[in-house]
Amino acid sequence: MYDPMLYVHWKQAKLAMIPFVVAAFGLPLLAIQGLGPEPQGLNLDETLIWLPLFPALAGAIGVVLALTAWNWDHQQGHVYALTLPMARWEYAMHKMGAGVVLGLVPVMAFWIGAHLASASLTLPVGLNAYPNQLTLRFLFAVLLSYALLFAMAAGTVKTTIWSVTGVIAFFIAGSVLNDFLALFFPYFQEADIVAVVGEWLFTARGPFGVFTGNWALIDV
Amino acid sequence: MPTTRWVLLGLVALACPVGASGQFTDGQLRERLDSLRPVLEQASIAAELERAAAAEAMRIEAREEVEQTQVPLERLRIGPLHVLAFADQVDLARDIFEEVWEQTYSNIAGSPSVARTVIAFQWRTPQRTVSEEEDSASVVHGLSLNRVWTPTRARVEVRVRNAIASVLSEDLPPESPLRLWVTELRPGSLPGYTERPRGTLSSYVDTEGAYRQLVVTQSGSTRACMDGDLAACSAALRLRLDDPRVSDWLSLEERQAMIQSGIGADGAFMHPDFPLVRACVEEDDEESCNRALREVVVWTPARPLGGPASTDLFWYAVRVGGVGAWERVLEMQESSPLDALTHIAGVGADELIGGWRAWVIESRPDVHAGLGTTRWATLFWVLVLGALAMRSTRWRLG
Fold it and tell me: How far is residue B272's CA from residue B284's CA, in Å, rounded to a whole number?
């Protein structure tokens, strides 16, 4: 049952994925532009402008994969899925697995691009290239973005709207709630739950920590 | 309507018919007006009293309002620090200042600036004012932190650490070579400003940043320093007060490359100073290269290792110096940075620079550290989201 689902997803996603595969391959090469072997060493500042594009590209790939995973299903009113002799959870699992496999295509392109970019430089003592670590980070960022959008697209529009509204409401009304709790619990006099939650979301242990780590291909 | 106005109206009413009829002589009129004077005076006094009572009532009301919102101030003593905090934040201030002092400044003693300064601390409160009258004998260093920029306790600790470093900076005169060196200000810089810039010490010891600077800075002296040449380290840090020598910082090839990249490959032959550029690039003439850097590329000599490296070396010297190091900082205010730092640390120049270099190299950042934790956290969240997707309700009827 998995193979046909992978095939259907591939048919849906292949055209949309082409520019992303090209971008994944080319971005590491673009990022090292102007860092040629020069007598005065490498100016890493020139690569900084490219770094935010790495997590942005990974996020975009995950979004495209997730939307193409459910798009055709929604358009056909889930008739195909309902005709299959399998449980809903099993169907969603196969579908998600297919998307993960397809996500490996741009990740592989990225890995090749990162290795080519690293090989094209002569690094001075103390500087290193990290193509494998960067690719690993890229892979996990793609997976997370894909899983998030996949879960949202799998649910009803109502659930998605409620979830997104809840998050926005928390960040807006959180400070007011914090002040209210501070009246009863001393802990909240010193803490700001919105800031604490915000920081946790983007630290190594939080769900979005993978997007905020070090995305440098060349570093010390 | 106040009483005075009624009296005046009465006077006018009395005067009008008198004036109109012309039956009274001037003397009689004066007499009648004089008879009304006590009434007028009485009314004026009453009005004055009324105004004073209203003003007093307003004052009392305002004072009550202030008393309702104002919290009394308390003065704390944490090590040599004097901290002024509002009563409702005394425990918090004590905790934070004690922690920061223990962690960062515990071996600092004898600072006159710390002794005469009171740090007025408040966090997340509606910016209550600590007036100068409350502590006129001391210099008040305000530290009012709002919730937007310092929402968490960790950030408050950073600000407290910086505030203490800022107070410690005042132990060194603004034109002290050591202070100028650590804060990277040049003597008499920023002309046109009525007040001289006062560089403050940074409390942020970024040894990883110093390592990064050592590796990445495009200068032969920093690379030689990496390789263990302590004289090159000293030159790159510009620890002596002599004029900067560009040849100590940049090799001939580096200077030639800077000039070529500064004016472009084609521009070199069209540049009005072409002979100078040619003498540098083609004839390897060092003096022409130095002149071309100044005149053609308009490059201002700046030491390769500043910022994180100099701050790190300063605090490293204080740490090596141990107890009594800060007193030695005060003794060497007019000396060159190298003499001052060796005196503070209590060791020779080579030992200090060599030790610092080794410490920086040991502190090489693990660039992709934490990827392991991130990997597991991401996998966990992917599984959670996958499970949520499988529990979707889209297929339910109704």
Answer: 19
* φ and ψ at residue B372, rounded to 5 degrees: -60, -50
pLDDT digit string, tens, across residues A194-203: 888 888 888 8
Q: What residues in B contact A107, CB-CB < 8 Å?
A: none
Structurally, how many domains does chain A consist of?
1
CB contact (8 A) between residue B367 and residue A147: no
Chain B nearest-CA distance from A186, in A, is 11
Q: Is A154 left (phi over 0), alpha (psi -120 to 50) or beta?
A: alpha
Residues of chain A contacting B374 with CB distance shorter than 8 Å: 137, 140, 204, 209-210, 213
What's the alpha-carbon Rg for chain A, to the nearest Å?
22
What kind and span of H or E run contains B268? helix B267-270
Structural domain boundaries enclosing A99? 2-155+210-219
- Name, in order, each residue with C-beta under 8 angstroms of B49's C-beta and a sequence gap of 6 or more: none
Contact state of A147 with B212 under an 8 Å Cβ cutoff: no
Asked if the structure places residue A59 within a domain, the reply is: yes
B276: closest CA of chain A, how far (Å): 21
Is the pLDDT higher at B370 or at A150?
Answer: A150
In 3D, which of B346, B255, B241 has the Cα closest to residue B292? B255
Give the minimum alpha-carbon distance from A195 to chain B in angstroms, rounded to a whole number: 6
**pTM (2 d.p.):** 0.71
Neighbours of A19 (CB within 10 A): 12
In a domain, A97, yes or no: yes
Q: Are the C-beta atoms of A105 and A197 separated by less than 8 Å?
A: no
* Interface confidence (ipTM) of the complex: 0.86
Nearest to A35 by CA among B398, B387, B218, B49: B218
* DSSP SS3 for A45: helix
Q: Does the residue A196 lie in any domain?
A: no
- Is there a domain that residue A145 lies in? yes
- The predicted structure's pLDDT at residue B28: 85
